[in-house]
Amino acid sequence: MTRWSEDQVTALAPDASSLSAARKLAGRWRGAGQHETALWGLCQGSGAKPYQTIVDLAGPAYKCSCPSRKFPCKHALSLLLEWAMGRVEQAPEIADYAATWIDGRIARATKPAAETATRTSNPATAEQRRVRVTAGLEELDVWLGDQIRTGLAQTDRSFRAFETIAARMVDAQAPGVASALRQLPTTVATRADWPDAVLSEYARLHLLIAAHRRLDEVPAELRASIRTHVGYPNPAEAVRTEPAVRDRWQVLGIRISEEERLYTRRTWLYGRDSRRWALVVDHSFGSPAFPADVPTLGFLADADVHYYPGAAPLRALWGERHGAATPFTTLPVDEDRPGTVAAALAEHAAALGADPWLRGWPVLLADVVPVRTENGWYIVGSDGTALPVAPSEQPWRLLGVSGGHPVTITAEWTGAGLHPISVFSAGDVIDLARLDAAGRNAPNAHAAQASNIADLTSVALLGTARRAPDQAGLAAPVANAAALLTADPALRLLESAALQDIFARGGVRATTVTSPAPADDDTRRLLPHPAAARLSRMLQERSAFLPEWFAAAQPHDYRAPDALCGQLLDHAKSNAELREPLLRLAGTRGRWLAGQHPDWRSLIRQQPAATPTAEVWQFGQPPERRAWLAELRRGDAAAARETLTATWPKESGPLKAELLALLADGLSPADEPLLEAGLDDRRADVRRTAASLLPLLPDSAFAHRIVRRADEWIRVEHRRMHAELVVALPDTMDAAAKRDGIADRSVEFTYRWGGAPDTTAGRLRQLVAATPLRHWSTVLGAPDKAVKAKIDERFRQPIFDGWVDAALAQQDSAWARVLFDAGVPTDLAMLRRRELFGLLPQADRTRHLLDLDGSWLSEIEALLPAMGHPWPEPLAQHLILLLFERARAAARRPEAHGNTPNAHRSLLAIASVHLPLVAADAAAVVARRCGDPAWERAFDQLAHDLTHRSMMLEELQ
């Protein structure tokens, strides 16, 4: 049995919640195996007895001992996912519990079916229905004539007006007509060309009513089509009596829609031998739990289908299957069905000629290229002929797959244009309805084109009571036919519009569009499929594990699958932190695709040049210049300094401060002249940047100036038992002090004294922060002695804040240790403590957290972000034990406040991101032992997240 892909498994999910729950069951399976078409396993749930899950892959069909009413349930989906990922071993024989169910299915399948009587309708009932339908349609025809006679501009176009006539059609048992009428309020409200659309729909309905009057006179196939469009019932039992069409049916497209809790699945099948299309439509109320008889996307099955009777048969029922479904890697395209634009238009015209009420027809277009022009999207064939894409579509995913190279597309051709369904590339069928919003903001509006129906529309707007229809503007064949019409002017206009609409739709001529140059090839290794599928889900969920994923993928330098490029660009646009790795993964295809999209185009300029050159520095955009100088600074600090010095007088704007800040990388005394020049710059952000970097040069002139001021303004008086700091700052700062960054910054600092803002305290903090810490060690002794100095209560907080600023800027771990132990007296104490904590050696940080018990969980949570990634194993074990204690406390006292997982959800969230992967087993063990259902779910989720991360990293190898 060929192993399924993960995409094929996910297509079976009845809803997104079931699929999400299935993924969380990874790691809970035991005794799983696969033999031929049987797949089985035991999944440990919340009870003592595991669930027995069986899948018959030939169906597929599912059996599970869980109480779920969904098919497949989350356990069956999880088992299929495990198998698709290669984590289920082949077994020499089927497990006993699975064999019993499989044998029972085989026995029932081979048992002769009992004769069932085909339900037939009562002739009297059928005649009564036809009378009601006829009466309702006649009333509708009068209403249509009144609308045209009065004028569309004057008639009531409200939702209530359309709902009233639609409800009358429901009463008349013509639901197909009622459905069409209920679509019109949306058309009127959302389309600028609503008069054309409404007139065309009215004309279609009038034509249907006219055909219904002659129902007994038309051929049987056309009669069936008329009945279908009106809404006469067509029971499945009757359809199954139609001749079966056996073929190797390939699933080329699936769409699921929902309206008022009624889910509809449309599956497009293409006969590999007959080259016929079939559309299987399934409905499910309440949830998308569709039957699993039809294969999933990308699979082929030898089976029968039964077409609904009609003049252009398309909809069908799935019949008997003659073999297991298997994936296909090629499509049938030959000289008889070449897959060209012309052939697609010819097929649609033939179908429309047989059934003029058709709204769309599936087409298979081979060797075509999606192209975006100023007039909208087009699908362009190898000969340059093109068909427009419907304005409602945004096929950026399709463009990413193609990259300007020919692909094969399954689409539905309608009056509005093409609706792409799937694309076949490199042996895979890729669904184009995935839930990624790639490029949805880019407009796709075709240029307005002249229409022969425009003259009729203008008359319909005014009303035939005011203006007679002029047939001169109609196409010649339509005008000749319309000249023979002798009905009332309003009805004659509707009939003329119907003729023109069918003539226009059936006689569409392909336009000509020039395809742009395709994307260059990317020679890097392709990201493995399992990793790509997981990344796509993580991007959709905006997973917290994305940074770890990209860090692990970086050494491999993979390129993303083409279908993923649009999603990567969408996230690169909004996620500055991961933008560079996202663009790197998108690679050449991503850069080409970004150049086509107005919102993504700026991403191309933000990427660092592959081979930095002087031209980038001279003529590049600000992000490019910044990236180029940063790269040069890392490789040659002196060259970067000289380059910036040469252009410094000409630099301007916010970029000037950003460029100066790059000197922090490899800062040396040689950078002092340029930083001193920055102190004299006109821009305040440049002056602040220079003032923040100069204190890092302890022997600079700036440092000496600051030390002199510290000696003068902060006097140290040594007492017998302690030292005392006496602050005597001047009331106003002279120009030299302001130049060195000591200025009034009351907005940034909120010190108050005596009920008023304390600007002196703010200046004091700036002075202390800029002073080299070795100065305080000289005048006060070691850091542990310095922090014990006596300080006036007014100035104690700004001095300590200044020491913290200096310790963080100068990366002094000795001062950080002392300040951390002493505490930081500010409103931002926890944030500052974490920054100081991060300067301590890893062993000291771990030891400190291990010394804290469960009463310090808030402190632990605040400091954990400074522990890096992943956390040390001893810390992981300690944290899980502390949470386990909380869980046991919750089991003993469920009513106690603060013991629930919700009270610690932020801690559990960061733990799932940073715990070492080996902690998954410990989390699973405590989940079984904690005794509290809520905590059991929380620990299970934690174990699942760690397993997810482990699998995520394994897939990248």
Topology (elements, then pairings):
Layout: H1 6-10, H2 16-23, E1 29-35, E2 38-43, E3 51-56, E4 61-64, H3 74-84, H4 96-110, H5 123-150, H6 159-171, H7 175-182, H8 184-190, H9 194-213, H10 220-230, H11 236-239, E5 244-259, E6 262-271, E7 277-285, E8 299-307, E9 315-321, E10 326-327, H12 341-354, E11 360-373, E12 376-380, E13 385-388, H13 396-402, E14 407-414, E15 417-425, E16 428-431, H14 454-462, H15 476-482, H16 489-506, E17 511-512, H17 529-541, H18 546-553, H19 565-574, H20 579-594, H21 601-606, H22 614-619, H23 622-635, H24 637-647, H25 654-661, H26 672-679, H27 684-693, H28 701-713, E18 714-718, E19 723-727, H29 735-739, E20 752-753, E21 756-757, H30 759-770, H31 773-780, H32 783-786, E22 790-791, H33 793-810, H34 813-822, H35 829-837, H36 842-850, H37 857-863, H38 873-892, H39 905-914, H40 919-929, H41 933-954
Parallel strand pairs: 7-9, 19-22
Antiparallel strand pairs: 1-2, 2-3, 3-4, 5-6, 5-8, 6-7, 8-9, 8-10, 11-12, 11-14, 12-13, 13-17, 14-15, 15-16, 18-19, 20-21
Helix pairs in contact: 2-3, 5-6, 5-9, 5-14, 5-16, 6-7, 8-9, 9-16, 15-16, 19-20, 23-24, 25-27, 26-27, 30-33, 33-34, 38-40, 39-41, 40-41
Characterization of the model:
The protein has 957 residues and is α+β, with helices and mostly antiparallel strands. Strands 16-15-14-11-12-13-17 form a 7-stranded antiparallel beta sheet. It has a 5-stranded mixed β-barrel with strand order 5-6-7-9-8. The protein has a 4-stranded antiparallel beta sheet with strand order 1-2-3-4, sandwiched between helices. A hairpin with a 7-residue loop joins strand 2 (38-43) and strand 3. The two termini are 26 Å apart. 38% of the residues are buried. Mean pLDDT is 88; it is low at 113-117.
